[in-house]
Amino acid sequence: MSRSRPKVFVPNQIPEQALRYLQEHCEVDYRDAEEKLSDAELIAGLQDAEGLMIYSRQKIEASILEHAPRLKVISNIAVGYDNLDLAELTKRGIMGTNTPGVLTETTADLAFSILMAAARRIAEADHFVKSGQWEGWKPSLLLGKNVYGSTLGIIGMGRIGEAVARRAKGFDMNILYYNRSRKPDAEAGLGVIYTSMDELLQKSDYVVVLVPLGPSSTRLIGEREFHLMKRDAIFINVSRGATVDEQALIRALQEGRIAGAALDVFEKEPVDKNNPLLQMRNVVTVPHIGSATLETRSKMAEKAARNLVAGLSGQIPVDLINPEVIPSASSQKKWG
Hints:
It is a single chain. The chain is 33% helix and 14% strand. The protein is built from 12 helices and 12 strands. The strands form 2 sheets. A 7-stranded parallel beta sheet has the order 8-7-6-9-10-11-12, sandwiched between helices. It has a 5-stranded parallel beta sheet with strand order 2-1-3-4-5. Helix 5 packs across helix 7 (159-170). The protein is globular and about 70 Å long. InterPro entries: D-isomer_2-hydroxyacid_DH, D-isomer_2_OHA_DH_cat_dom, D-isomer_DH_CS1, D-isomer_DH_NAD-bd, NAD(P)-bd_dom_sf.
């Protein structure tokens, strides 16, 4: 008798190629919808599922897992996995996976794009023209801040941090970085300079945060850190909103302790319509689109599908994030 195919639950729309791959190997309960499922809907779909493939906005905690008795693998379509309670997954023998690598360059593009947009006041200028305010050229009109030859501070020198540094080299920037461990290869290959975080904050014209969210990085940047920054510095966050004390950022901007910010992520998403950041002309805001290109999202979904199928086939997924669930997989993941 042939073994039945494993059942997997995919609660949101994924690219067609990834879906076809899953359907070739699994029995798929697929919801072709973009909206996030409620916990009740998620639990209903997990009753007999052995695999789950989700985006990182879907939180998976004990209250969900206790209703998923057959679950063996959760495949995150993201690099970050702060939405997963890894301790709970491991305790229950459930593998968790993510999708590193494939979104590195795309996210670095976005990070450098919003840095440039904030420096040269692109969003302001666009609104200025479209709202009919442009009545002629003036020497002081929308003066911005140089990027070329300035100092960039990167907090979190992982894959994306290195990709941002490569872009900064093209602008002849002086690049400082802070990481939990030094990166000699990056220092040699990219000419980046390792510093303490305090020194980085004090010297940088632009500070970009690129760390994954975890206990050690939650509210990593707060009141003290903003006080250390230059008054004409611009702060960029393309990691997770909770790596920054958002109220401290708002105060720093309101009081002129920093010159501006460019944000792809927020403490609460979607961002509250009354959030003061949305009223500030010197703040560029985009809706968590770091990896949002058709090509990259397709690659992420395909990678997630392969991770899911591998785990359900008795293999160790390439991108296993809780290797302690399998005694033979001893490597550990760290930020940077």
